[in-house]
Amino acid sequence: MISVEGLSVEFNATPLFEDVSYVINKKDRIALVGKNGAGKSTMLKILAGLQMPTHGTIAVPKEVTIGYLPQVMILSDNRTVMGEAEQAFEDIFKLQARLEQMNQELAERTDYDSEDYHQLIERFTHANDRFLMMGGTNYQAEIERTLLGLGFSREDFQRPTAEFSGGWRMRIELAKLLLRRPDVLLLDEPTNHLDIESIQWLENFLATRANAVVLVSHDRAFLNNVTTRTIEITCGQIYDYKVKYDEFVVLRKERREQQLRAYENQQKQIEDTEAFIERFRYKATKAVQVQSRIKQLEKIDRIEVDEEDNSSLRLKFPPASRSGSYPVICEDVRKAYGEHVVFQNVNLRINRGEKIAFVGKNGEGKSTLVKCIMNEIDFDGKLTIGHNVQIGYFAQNQAQMLEENLTVFDTIDNVATGDIRLKIRDILGAFMFGGEASDKKVKVLSGGERTRLAMIKLLLEPVNLLILDEPTNHLDMRSKDVLKEAIRDFDGTVIVVSHDRDFLDGLATKVYEFGGGIVREHLGGIYEFLQKKKIDSLNELQKRVSLSSSPTTSSKETESETTQPSESKLSYEAQKELNKKIKKLERQVAECESSIEESEAAIAILEEKMATPEGSSDMQLYERHQKMKRQLDDIVEEWERVSMELEEAKG
């Protein structure tokens, strides 16, 4: 669908891409990867037509539509959530207005036999057919389905968008983009503002209902679940792998080893040639050979290897004094804004050295409880910070709060005290701000660079309680791995608010789930928690899982509730019932897939007929086409539901 030929991009005479070519096909699911600054976001902007390359062409057929979600955008606050989502169907509304205008004109005119009147009828008929084909009669249901999938409730639909946080407003923009159903979706970090449940919904939508997708994301699990092709940008070139991310990592390692061997061989060849030239440069009898070797040297196409900077980003939290046994204790903590209760009856006790995760939908109170712990907002109940607790706090908006006109060096110099000021250059170098990068103004830094700079500020003070609110947004995968390792080695207590399953995996040993105004404790890691959630949704096993009615349960209560399901040691009868259910669901999935294929084939035949001169004016064809499209939507919806149920059952 989109052909990229000989693409080159230069910034201040420095090449970012050189002679890059590739094709985006129908139904491609492409992960665009590369280290920060490699040009991933630039590539998306070029594909979206928002930036022009220095050289090369981007060939996009006229009928192909492109939807683009940037990392940051200016959002409108003049409508309700539903009103904003309806903007996705702006073309339908314009067409509807034209139809009403033409209908009014037909009703008022009396020159029924004139050529002009007949042409008006013909224009009205064609416009009405197009209106039906665009789904003008059932767009409302599609909006509701998408908004609910992205975490909105029906009560939110009529609320002004101004009442929502930036993250929720970004979800509205994402909803509008998905509702437009473009032929190619370009998504730049779409999971940054989503919670785990919404990410899983988006994964399913992109994998089953979207057309071509090109996405940039540092969420490894999301990439693996959505994409089937990986394009790496490195050293101004691209490498195209027809595999998902995890398989790409293995193949990339093999390719890099081959590159290194070829590079070493070429360097040996260059050294030998240079040695020959130097040795015989001034011997007349060897002049011809020397000139030949010089020309050889000039013609060599130098192999470039993308160096892995293993010295960078060595993260280690400084040692701090020992805190009391319980750094945080909540007793009947409640927070409400007017009549809206964010959470109530929160009772939790965090032990020294624990690493816990706060998870749940956005707006359920994760960051709010963090602010209560930080004493930034008022609340009801009792919240005790333990003896000798020193808190290091990284907030979601920390990177945006940096002073834009300061340089990187001055930003750290302003907060550093004592002997640490002598080591500022070393610290900046460890965070990939070495050399001239330390003199950059904050305002020209990328999102990832700002996040790293904000993280440095956190590291300057020794702490024994780390509270990190979405610390991985805008960090690349390698930076996340190093941060994760540092937190794992940290001997203090850690509270992490995050939606990044891969980051939390192997890090958190306890999960607190926020939802419905209550907070529940789950022992174990993030995937154990998600597994328990899936088991809870199985009808056969619901009676085996009795969730406590109290908002937060003790460790022993939680353990007794969840041990049986999490270990999957079901009784013979329960296992037998589960196997029966899986077989039934597998049959239903196969039947749905067969029906989808038949419906799509029948629709394709109808569309071929509609494209002919005779078929274009056949109203019955259009009506049958609309009916079959609605039937296909219903089958696809049923297939999604059954597929998810099957996945949960197998889980």
From TrEMBL:
Statement: the UniProt record of this protein carries the keyword Coiled coil: yes
Amino acid composition bias (Low complexity), ranges on this chain: 548-569
InterPro entries: AAA+_ATPase, ABC_tran_Xtn, ABC_transporter-like_ATP-bd, ABC_transporter-like_CS, ABCF_ATPase, P-loop_NTPase
Key words of the record: ATP-binding, Coiled coil, Nucleotide-binding, Repeat
Keyword Nucleotide-binding tagged: yes
Coiled coil: 575-649
Annotated spans, Disordered: 544-571
Domain ABC transporter residue range list: 2-260, 328-541
SMART domains: AAA
Gene Ontology molecular function: ATP binding; ATP hydrolysis activity
Family: Belongs to the ABC transporter superfamily. ABCF family. YbiT subfamily.
Stored PANTHER family: ABC TRANSPORTER ATP-BINDING SUBUNIT (PTHR42855), DRUG RESISTANCE ABC TRANSPORTER,ATP-BINDING PROTEIN (PTHR42855:SF2)
Official protein name in the record: Probable ATP-binding protein YbiT
Species, as recorded: Bacteroides faecichinchillae
Taxonomic classification: Bacteria, Pseudomonadati, Bacteroidota, Bacteroidia, Bacteroidales
